[in-house]
């Protein structure tokens, strides 16, 4: 039996701006990464998303990002390892307060956007993020790009890690995600996304944009909640995984 976690980035509205269908998406995923106020989210949105996740029985994780609302945390910003450590601790603490106050338990931490991709390649930045998670709560699981520096740093720090793959992104030869600045970065076809995920889970391989296979381990699959068809995407991916004999469960 193959088993995989299905996660989604949610709680990424703020103020009067709200993402659509978040409650419905939670019916099709097993873990949720909740924005912590830097790249998106605000206190009320964080509380509401925590409440929704608990109602749906979905495992909760913090989704700390760079302090860049305008760029949605997807623009690279130069920062020192100590600064990365500080912003991750700060954001985990903010979400943890809401999770605890609602009677829940936090399962994991998954960095967002540019912070995630930078830590995937930069050993010192990855170690700063991992140490921030460990020192906040060594029981937390660190989600990171499969085969990346962030996964290695998490293991070095003594954390349990989850190697993450993406349903809606294309890959490069080195296992990195194709830059969003390129036209072929995103997968919009439900069937193509499902086929990619099933192969990653069952065969441990993904076809890169250069036409070669990259070997990886798929322990959790990401679906982006800010996509235009996120709900349909989540529903389709979950159904196709189950039909392929892959059990969808959270780590909890």
From TrEMBL:
Nucleotide-binding in keyword set: yes
Protein's GO biological process: carbohydrate metabolic process
Sequence similarity: Belongs to the LamB/PxpA family.
Family matches, as Pfam families: LamB_YcsF (PF03746)
A GO molecular-function annotation: ATP binding
Subunit-level organization: Forms a complex composed of PxpA, PxpB and PxpC.
Function: Catalyzes the cleavage of 5-oxoproline to form L-glutamate coupled to the hydrolysis of ATP to ADP and inorganic phosphate.
Protein name as catalogued: 5-oxoprolinase subunit A
Enzyme nomenclature, EC number: 3.5.2.9
Catalyzed chemical reaction(s): 5-oxo-L-proline + ATP + 2 H2O = L-glutamate + ADP + phosphate + H(+)
Keyword field: ATP-binding, Hydrolase, Nucleotide-binding
Domain of life, per lineage: Bacteria
């Amino acid at each position: 039996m193959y088993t995989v976690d299905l996660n989604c980035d949610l709680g990424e509205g703020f103020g009067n701006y709200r993402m659509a269908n978040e409650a419905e998406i939670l019916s099709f995923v097993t873990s949720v990464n909740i924005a912590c106020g830097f790249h998106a989210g605000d206190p009320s949105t964080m509380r509401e998303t925590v409440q929704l996740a608990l109602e749906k029985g979905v495992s909760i994780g913090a989704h700390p990002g760079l302090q860049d609302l305008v760029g949605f945390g997807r623009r690279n910003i130069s920062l020192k390892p100590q600064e990365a450590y500080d912003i991750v601790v700060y954001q985990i603490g903010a979400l943890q307060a809401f999770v605890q106050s609602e009677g829940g338990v936090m399962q994991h931490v998954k960095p967002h956007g540019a912070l995630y991709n930078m830590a995937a390649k930069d050993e010192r930045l990855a170690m700063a993020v991992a140490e921030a998670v460990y020192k906040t709560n060594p029981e937390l699981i660190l989600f990171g790009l499969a085969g990346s520096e962030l996964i290695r740093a998490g293991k070095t720090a003594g954390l349990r890690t989850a190697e993450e793959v993406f349903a809606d992104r294309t890959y490069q030869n080195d296992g990195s995600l194709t830059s969003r600045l390129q036209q072929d970065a995103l997968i919009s076809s439900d069937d193509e996304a499902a086929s990619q995920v099933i192969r990653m889970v069952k065969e441990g391989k993904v076809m890169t944009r250069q036409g070669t296979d990259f070997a990886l381990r798929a322990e959790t699959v990401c679906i982006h909640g800010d996509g235009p068809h996120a709900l349909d995407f989540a529903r389709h991916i979950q159904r196709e995984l189950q039909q392929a004999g892959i059990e969808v469960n959270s780590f909890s």
